[in-house]
Amino acid sequence: MKAIKQQGFTLIELVIVIIILGILAVTAAPKFLNLQTDARVSTLSGLEAALKGGANLVYSKSAIAGVERQADSSVSDAGNTIDTVYGYPKASSDYLLWVDANTNDWNADQDTDGEITFRPSSVASDANCTVVYTEATDANTPAKAEVDLTDGC
Fold first, then answer.
1. Which residues is 133 bridged to in the sheet?
2. What does the alpha-carbon distance between residue 143 and residue 6 come to, in Å, rounded to a whole number?
3. Is-contact 92 118, C-beta < 8 A?
4. Cα separation of 133 and 145, whole Å?
5. What PROSITE patterns has UniProt attached to this entry (predicted)?
6. Torsion angle (degrees, nearest 10) of CA 123, 127, 128, 134
7. Which residues contact 122 (CB under 8 A, 6 or more apart)?
8. What is the pTM of this model?
């Protein structure tokens, strides 16, 4: 009797390959499913950089005008007036306009004086996925913008 050469996969080999692919998919899926969070984090980091850069530009403009040590002042540029506190922008919802952020993409909440919280419109209001801008408290303490990325982003 002549031996028959096997061609193709046996059923057992096919099942083993499917099991291995399933294990790989289960271990790799969480990494790929987390892309939405990564996109939000990148967006928040971008707004943080825009807030910091904008604050530094306004401070430079205030220094040129000689009002960087005043607790309450304003500077003008291209017809826009920006209220300042010690040379840095005052925390207000107008802040979004001069950093050129789309107001449809962001919600701005001013819970306390001197602080404003920006949250992407696509995120629930109770999620800790925000950028917090704090205006300068005195002539020696600059304004700051910080990303809050605790659970929920």
1. 116, 145
2. 74
3. no
4. 4
5. PROKAR_NTER_METHYL
6. 70
7. 40
8. 0.72
Question: Is 98's pLDDT higher than 70?
Answer: no
Structure tokens at 10: 């046996």
DSSP code string of 99-113 = TT--TTTEEEEEEET
75 neighbors 98 (Cβ within 8 angstroms): no
Alpha-carbon distance of 148 to 134, in angstroms, equals: 13
- Helix-then-strand count for the chain, H and E: 3, 7
pLDDT band of residue 63 (cuts 50, 70, 90) is: very high
Burial class (CB in 10 A: 0-12, 13-18, 19+), 95: buried
Beta-bridge partners for 119: 107
**For position 59, what pLDDT does the model report?**
92
Mean pLDDT, range 89-104, rounded to an integer: 72
pLDDT at 100: 66
Beta strands, E only, 44-143: 73-77, 80-85, 88-89, 106-112, 115-120, 130-134
Domain regions of the chain by residue span: 39-148
